[in-house]
Amino acid sequence: MKEPQAERLQAHFRGAIEAQKGALLECQASILEAARIVGTAFENGNKLMLCGNGGSAADCQHIAAEFVNVLDKAFARPPLAAVALTTDTSFLTAAANDFGFESVFERQVEGLGRPGDVLLAITTSGRSPNVLRAARRAAEMDIAVIGFTGADGGDLRGASHPCIVVPAQSTQHIQEVHIVIGHVLCDLVQQALFDS
Fold it and tell me: What are the tens digits of pLDDT across the range 87-130?
């Protein structure tokens, strides 16, 4: 491997490690609060909805799968009700065509959400219009909103509580930490609900 490539590789790992260290120091309280909110929703028979764009859309699917399936086969437990609002291509394309892309998550929240549910809104910048519209509509419907973001938190800071703000500027590193936090969130919730 050429030396500049090795340096780039090492720099990426260092950035990822620093982002994780920063999140551990700065986001602990908000992650624990998020776990409490999600666990309470599941205890009460409610569900978790997730929305985001691009890599964050993939993270929604990944995190929802961990809740519905299982995080670790060594810890068998019943499925938990989680749905990624990023997966129904027929709906997404119809709503984007008829009402604009900014509406695609908001309309699903309106149609699927119920008071007591939770929306996990993911946007690395905190400024994605469709995610923010969904978060604001959820709050109006008495649906708790948890934010995953980074950098300065953007507008998602004011539209979610808690808002888990990864202290990093790089979208890649923010997304890498989001998936770590998603795994931690699932682990904390399942332990609270099922570890006797």
Answer: 999 999 999 999 999 999 999 999 999 999 999 999 999 999 99
Dihedral sign computed on CA atoms, order 67, 117, 34, 158: positive
Q: For the chain, what percent of residues have pLDDT higher than 90?
A: 97
User: Residue 85's closest CA among 33, 137, 23?
Assistant: 137
- Phi, psi (5° rounding) for residue 147? -105, 140
Domains, in order of start, for the chain: 3-194 (3.40.50.10490)
